[in-house]
Amino acid sequence: MEPETDDVALFFKEFDGMFAWLYFSALNQFNSFNELENSLKTTSKSNAVLMNLRTVFKKNLYESPPGKRIFSKSFSLILNLEDILNVFPDAKIIVLIRDPLEVIPSSLSLARNVQMNLNRFERISLEERNIYYRNLYNASLIFYKELVKFVESDITKGKEVLIINYKDFISDFEGTMEKLIKYCEIEKTPDLHNSIVKQAEKQPNYKGQHEYTIEEFGFTKEEVNKDFDFLYQRFKF
Q1: H or E, element range at 121
Q2: How far apart are CA 88 and CA 84, in angstroms?
Q3: How many Å apart are CA 49 and CA 175, to the nearest integer?
Q4: Considering the domain 92-237, what is its CATH architecture?
Q5: Residue 88's Cα: distance from chain center in Å?
Q6: 163 by DSSP, 3-state: which?
Q7: φ and ψ at 172, to 5 degrees?
Q8: Element spanning 139, H or E
Q9: Cα 165 off chain centre by
Q10: What are phi and psi of 98, to 5 degrees?
């Protein structure tokens, strides 16, 4: 009953979408990168998922006081950004982008923990686990490539899309929050200002609760730097 991203609700409603791929289809061995990509996109871009998201929004707006806005947090809809702009033309999209060297081990650790409870992951062979990790690694590669393609395409012209670099939350928290406040047209009340100032004092020393390395999943920093060079050329982490 704790707060959670929209991904979980959408997954349980239809047993479809990216979560279905991450926790079930990704256990398969694919014959090629293209086969994996087709499988991922076919499952992730399910129209039922977007329609369910629309239903969730309608219910929340109906139950909310007049003038309230919906804030939806999701990572599994990263391949659906173009569709989201078509279904929700007045949406403001904020994309928080982070260094793959931080994202990949964290994501793999989360997936591993879920699989331990869901599919008795510890009972399958090391080779099968490594196949699974490689599939999720390749999925991350696809996510980032599609994101860069989306950002650089004509689709976003005249649309509301804001790209925020995760490192800016650490190095310039106040400036980054100012961008978000302006973009989202949020009233900067004295309470909000004070909260931002207090958090800005903590940010330089912030560290996540967990630390993971890319090596524990069978990858190297050199491999990531090479595979994700297109991203590092576009964004500075």
Answers
A1: none
A2: 6
A3: 35
A4: 3-Layer(aba) Sandwich (3.40)
A5: 19
A6: strand
A7: -145, 70
A8: helix 126-152
A9: 13
A10: -140, 155
CA dihedral 9, 12, 18, 23 (to 10 degrees): 130
**In which residue are the tokens 């989360």 written?**
110
- Residue 58, pLDDT > 80, answer yes
Q: How many CA atoms lie within 13 A of 120 on its CB side?
A: 2
Question: Crossing angle, helix 126-152 and helix 33-44, to 10 degrees?
Answer: 70
Cα 120–chain centre separation: 25
What whole-number distance in Å separates Cα of residue 203 and Cα of residue 184?
22
CA angle 115, 116, 117 (to 5 degrees): 90
- Domain-wise residue ranges, the chain: 1-73, 92-237
Q: What is the pLDDT of residues 87-130, one digit of tens each?
A: 888 888 999 999 999 999 999 998 999 898 888 888 889 999 99
By three-state DSSP, how is residue 6 classified?
Answer: helix
For a pLDDT cut of 90, what percent of the chain falls above it? 46
In this prediction the pTM is 0.88
Report the alpha-carbon distance of residue 139 to residue 149 in Å, rounded.
15
**What is d(CA 78, CA 235) in angstroms, rounded to the nearest whole number?**
17
In which residue are the tokens 């190095």 written? 171
Per the CB < 8 A criterion, the answer to whether 186 and 74 are in contact is no
Rounded CA separation 138/30 (Å): 11
Q: How far is CA 226 from CA 36, 72, 100, 149, in A?
A: 20, 33, 11, 18
Compute how many other C-beta atoms are within 10 angstroms of the C-beta atom of residue 33: 11
- Mean pLDDT value across residues 10-18: 76
